[in-house]
Amino acid sequence: MTTSNWYGDALPSGSENADVVIGGTYTLSGPSTGQTFSAAGLTIGDSDGVKDIQHVNGGNITISGDITIDTNGGIYFAYGNITADQLIVKGESIPAGPLYYGLFVWSDYYELGSSSLTVNSIEVGPGGDFVHDWLNPATGTLSAGEMNIANGGRAFFQWDASGIQHVNNDGLLSMGEYVEGNSLAVNTFTQTEYGQTLLLVGPSGGTGDMIADSIAATGAVSLDGQLVFILADGYTPSLYESFTLMTGSPSPAFSAR
User: Fold this and answer.
1) For the purposes of burial, counting CB atoms within 10 Å of the CB of 172, is it exposed (0-12), middle (13-18) or buried (19 or more)?
2) Do the beta carbons of residue 153 and residue 124 sit within 8 Å?
């Protein structure tokens, strides 16, 4: 196993046959654009201090196996490409309140340019946080066969998102932290009795209907657990207002209790 302390703007020399463990804080930024780092596996973070990658320079991280983000580890991903078999995000305990453990942030806050995350699956374990904060969906692509949110794991989708085929929620799925009306587009959506989905509801800007975050599935939706609706600040619904919660095919294609 290769242990690397990554600092500065230059990508370290990787080996396609080695597992790499991040032993420091690394900022991939500045002039070193277009480089590629390859490894068999990549682990970021443990219980001893904060270890993360600021992946913002347009280079490529290509992992033939898994990327594991453990306690106190993180990737801030705003400009570049990441390819792996699985993205595994976890922590040592279930967090409360702000984001603490096993953090993967996929953000285009600065709108630096086109990025992509391509994995077979996203595994959000207990204490893990996955944050999709894409301000301009046209600049980023997400491709994952499935996302599994374990009991104690959390996934935050702040804006419209697509590219995940199947979502299985056994933890917390939160949408619309900033604005209501976001849609998570998937093929199928399953939520267990332990799962919880938070949706923001607000005014449509017109009359007659509210606007709310929603799950848009092309296939079946199986819904158990909790749905929590949060009203936008200062908004009080009027009588007979309505909104779309979930769509599926055929419609209705979900069970609930």
Assistant:
1) buried
2) yes
Q: Are 180 and 212 in contact (CB under 8 A)?
A: yes
Q: Residue length, the chain?
A: 257
Q: What is the dihedral of CA 99, 118, 45, 72, to 10 degrees?
A: 0
The two structure tokens encoding residue 248: 């599926």
Q: What is the pTM of this model?
A: 0.83
| All residues at 6 or more sequence positions from 177 whose CB lies less than 8 Å from its CB, including other chains | 156, 158, 200
The DSSP bridge pattern shows strands 86-89 and 115-124 to be parallel
Distance CA 254, CA 235 (A): 29
pLDDT digits (tens, 9 = 90+) for 33-50: 556 677 778 877 765 555
Backbone phi and psi for residue 220, each to the nearest 5 degrees, phi listed first: -80, 150
Cα separation, 145 vs 43, whole angstroms: 21
pLDDT category, 60, cuts 50, 70, 90? Answer: confident
- Cα–Cα distance between 245 and 199 in angstroms, integer? 9
Q: Which tokens go with 107?
A: 């953000």
Cβ–Cβ under 8 Å, residues 183 and 200: no
Strands 129-133 and 41-44: unpaired
pLDDT digits (tens, 9 = 90+) for 185-236: 999 999 999 999 998 888 776 555 678 888 999 998 888 999 888 888 778 7
Question: What pLDDT is recorded for position 2?
Answer: 39
User: Domain boundaries in the chain?
Assistant: 2-255
